[in-house]
């Protein structure tokens, strides 16, 4: 989501993942689709980063 928003803005913003945690309870047997419902929060973070030129951090939740 963040990459798409940055690309659409036409601005030169670097995207960096600071931390990544995952818990896999079983092995995937086929295609896996991840879902994130934090779109509005991600949009606000990208807009804040572009407006202030500061680094912003926030956890987002991604589920199967």
Describe the protein's architecture and organization.
This protein has 64 residues and is mostly helical. It has a domain at 1-8 and 30-64. It contains two helices and two strands. It has helices at 2-9, 39-52, and strands spanning 35-36, 62-63. The protein has a two-stranded antiparallel ribbon with strand order 1-2. The longest helix is centred in the C-terminal third of the chain and has 14 residues, at 39-52. It is elongated and about 40 Å long. The protein starts with a helix and ends with a strand. The mean pLDDT is 90.
Key structural traits:
single chain, 64 residues, mainly alpha, two-stranded antiparallel sheet, 6% strand
Question: What does this entry show, briefly?
Answer:
With 64 residues, the protein is mainly alpha-helical. The chain has helices spanning 2-9, 39-52; strands at residues 35-36, 62-63. The chain starts with a helix and ends with a strand.
Could you report the average pLDDT, rounded to the nearest whole number?
90
Return the structural class.
Answer: mainly alpha
Order of helices and strands: HEHE
Biggest beta sheet summary: 2 strands, antiparallel
Which blocks of ≥5 consecutive residues have pLDDT under 50? none
Radius of gyration, rounded? 14 Å
The level of helicity is 25-40%
Provide the spatial order of strands within the biggest beta sheet: 1-2
End-to-end gap: 16 Å
- Distinct helical segment count: 2
Number of E strands: 2
Shape: elongated
DSSP strand (E) fraction?
5-15%
């Amino acid at each position: 989501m963040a990459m798409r928003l940055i690309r659409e803005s036409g601005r030169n913003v670097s995207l960096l993942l600071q931390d990544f945690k995952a818990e896999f309870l079983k092995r995937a047997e086929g295609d896996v689709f991840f879902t994130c419902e934090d779109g509005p929060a991600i949009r606000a973070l990208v807009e804040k980063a572009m407006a202030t030129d500061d680094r912003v951090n926030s956890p987002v939740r991604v589920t199967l």
